[in-house]
Fold these 4 entries.
Entry 1:
Amino acid sequence: MRENIKATVKNILTAYLELNKHRKTPERFTILDAVYSMDGHFSLEELGDKLTNEYNFPVSRATLYNTLRLLIKLRLVVCHRFQSTTKYEACFDNNSHCHQICTMCGKVTEVKSQGVIDAINKMPTRRFHKDGFTLYVYGICSSCQTKMRRHTAKGNETKKVQKSK
């Protein structure tokens, strides 16, 4: 299935470039292929590393930015600005999804929620066609909650020891 998606997004990029009389450069198509070979969210640096290490196709930071900007415009990639970082994600086959973001450690987890999808699909809009959505839910992950409980418990024990002296 992934190869079908890669062929489809390549056709979309090709059609756009031809229609707008832009050059069909190997960099654009290699970056597109690398993006659709990655699972989940990735940073600009991770994409650059993949191109260099796995594709043996190093490109400049400017080429990465410009190509990602084009892919975002074509809705083939989505840009997420999580707390302190920017991540990208291939989105042609996944236009609607939710993210849980831990406000302590920054961990991002993608969540499938049919209830949220159904609610947004049923949401009335006026003179507007919905293509997809991204929802961000902020909170504290279970790992950070555990660390907080341990820290609090440790602090309470220290206070008890100090009071008993």
Entry 2:
Amino acid sequence: MGLVVQKYGGSSVADAEGIKRVAKRIVEAKKNGNQVVVVVSAMGDTTDELIDLAEQVSPIPAGRELDMLLTAGERISMALLAMAIKNLGHEAQSFTGSQAGVITDSVHNKARIIDVTPGRIRTALDEGNICIVAGFQGVSQDKKDITTLGRGGSDTTAVALAAALDAEVCEIYTDVDGVFTADPRVVKKARKIDWISFEDMLELASSGSKVLLHRCVEYARRYNIPIHVRSSFSGLQGTWVSSEPVVRKTQQQGETKVEQAIISGVAHDTSEAKITVVGVPDKPGEAASIFRAIADAEINIDMVVQNVSAASTGLTDISFTLPKSEGRKAIDALEKAKTAIGFDSLRYDDQIGKISLVGAGMKTNPGVTADFFTALSDAGVNIELISTSEIRISVVTRKDDVPEAVRAVHTAFGLDSESDEAVVYGGTGR
């Protein structure tokens, strides 16, 4: 008997009919001889609605109490799903994150998993139950407070449980048929990827692809847990994310390995802002002081560019990107350190977007960079920042130019599908 961990997103359990449809799929997996553990998100936009409600009561809700509030959404989903499964004649038990043994650090609203001790889950499985676990949440190791894992936390919960239970696969059910070469909401001719490596998926996730979050993929790579991304609205084969290419069976050729493409996909992100530190003395230690102030404020940054200093003044400008939600905090941190650093002023811009081209094949294929910039030029897109790795090229441009830029690059690299358009089954994208 194999053990399968399944995760269902908010759009999959958005209403009673959705919950009953998901329950039937879970029971089917059980009937196929598997032990089944299910991680579930809050229904539809419940989490966003709870955040809105909290902000109406308090402009800056206390982190501990906000976590206590937000975890209610997943508890509602898990209980209703367990009821639906029992109505189909199968035994199911629901567990909160803390009951499932998800132990985290003490950082509220974006806690990280330290350990998973799924003793109660194993016992319930041995008794023949289907286990339903509330995603996105855990309990802090020191204070035993309820914590939440931040956006995409349910995916991370699922992979962490799969690793702790030594599952055969972690199935992530969402509102699209798998991982696509671009966001199907932006590129209608986006093509579904059959298999993608952990490394390429990590780059796509960190560059803005929202079908899987970066922490989830990193966890899966660390413990070598294969992920199968598929839709809960259809029975189609999805996308496999793993260290080795999957073997696909065909009637004509028998078994063949799915090869990795030169370019895996185009990702975009409009949730970042850009800060430019103007008039920085061009001498050793200045950049370190700037980014130490940012690090001390517990802010993650993405792209960094330093201009060549002006010979007449000996001053330079340093620009970097970061999440919009951290913009105010970053500005405040730098203003406090202004005297010590000695810069002239700060410029803040939240009307930017990032476009990234990802693919392990670009390491050995000359001309990819030239083709990328040519496609952007032909689309009339101006570039503000550039960042590269071995398997990724990212640029920052105006936010309004992002959709056209993504479509232009997608077409330029032959990623457009010749068949049916990509289908988005549900979800508001909020």
Entry 3:
Amino acid sequence: MLKITNLQKFYGTHQALKNIDLEVRHKEVVVILGPSGCGKSTLLRCINGLEQIAGGSIHLNGETIDKNFKEWTRIRQKVGMVFQSYELFEHLSVKENILLGPLKVQKRQKDEVLNEAKIWLEKVGLLHKINAHPRELSGGQKQRIAIVRSLCMNPELMLFDEVTAALDPEIVREVLEVILTLAREGMTMLIVTHEMQFAKAVADRIVFMDEGSIVEINTPELFFENPKTQRAKKFLNLFSF
């Protein structure tokens, strides 16, 4: 589904991404791990057009995206992204937040989207909050609403960027359970996280990054039990399993 070839990104003279090569298969869950500042979030933002790439290419279901690509509005309907900061509109209700994209961007019928939204809200345990406003929700509830909002655009690929980083530890699990459910249902996903146990449970493959490069790609079992690189071993020593 996704093929990244020789991807490069600069901030001034600093090279944030160095010749990234990565393939993600249909229905595969790939978790990206690495220390802060290694380029994980930048990689996701390049895939979704939130950062302009300097070189290389991204192939999404056969469509080629390079540094001159302009049609990001169309691509973002295929690639959903959920951030750690929810990005909900505070003046809109949950229902209005969810319906905004499908109605305004995709020009879909309101009844169709509303029915789909209710199904997803039921799955994440928040149908009873459909008329609430973000100020009435907990952090975990806001994040689940943000996930539903992306899913109602019917994306082919979902990107999750540290979606539990801003949450209290007690409510992290309710968000991770939603992502685990999506994995079981066959959603293709790229996930950046610092939740090691979650990464081990949800990933088909682990991508480990450091200083803008992919250092290691492995199965969860081999990465956590016997990583190939010394850099990955040093990183894992910071966590207890």
Entry 4:
Amino acid sequence: MVNDYYEILGVSRQASAEEIKKAYRRLARKLHPDVAGPEVADQFKDVTRAYEVLSNPEKRQLYDMGGESALGGGGGGGAGFGGFQDIFETFFGAAAGGAPRGPVPRGRRGQDALVRLDIDLSEAVFGAPKELQVETAVVCGTCHGSCCRPGTSPRTCDVCHGRGSVQRVTRSFLGQVMATSACAACQGHGTVIDDPCQDCSGEGRVRTRRTIRVDVPAGVDSGTRIRMTGQGEVGPGGGPAGDLYVEIREKAHPVFVRRGDDLHCTLTVPMTAAALGTVMVLETLDGVREIDVEPGTQPEQVYTLRDLGVGHLHRGGRGDLHVHVDVQVPTRLDERQRELLAELAELRGEEQPEPRLAATGSGVFSKLREKLAGR
């Protein structure tokens, strides 16, 4: 069935915006379900839909050109309530619709809390249990969240009789309309506390400092947040607690530098040891490890120790430990040492070495910076 919106409102196609508005007001008084009963609800929807379209200049132009089909999904013979809520509030006021149902509970969920926890690198590598002191709201130990002095209880509100809301009759162009609002005497709770708990002042909660155990998992990094469900603040009226978020801050280590789940450190090797090769001992986070320095080791040499890095967060395995070699050249030589080096230079034909230029940025320090920067 095709609806003629002008016919529904009883106006001509040349009707002005004011005439359309007056026609809608007249029909709304007559057909509103609160006045005429639920059996006219469909008619009222049709009238509302017609007014929604014809009161909008753009929609009215589309409708005049092609009828309901020109409106796309918005047409359909009173089936849609698209703008009904806005129109309803325009004419009847917000208080007439969406009335609260039943009393409002006193207990409400508490707020979430955020605290920061400083950890060492070793705790990030392996994970560790930590104890954290937080100041938060907990359930009152005297009234146990009831908000009342022990031995007493809330009484039913004399104004709303426990409903939490009150109704009043207001006059409008529709006639008498019943409006519902929260009861001011009990703030919508339906009950009144005459003798509140003195320890929590009727809040059902008190603030205190408590110790919380945090199981820090391996692989956390600065900025990682650990969610602890139900460890936040207890809500008003002894309501359920919110969540506690623990934000990790990892302290710098004097030896190891972290890049993702890998660790980096610098191992200083004497010039002679780098040339001849040796075995050096390195103290890692997993204990002592030996590194075989190969003969002819260059300053940019990197030795990788597998699975000695940071544990992967929420999955098995660990990163690696990368040991960067720094060859130490002696700056002070005694006479005998100088003679031996001079003899070595003569044997190698390096008394007057020819210069060998390298591209800018290809030295050991630039390479080390590139590795640490992840380039």
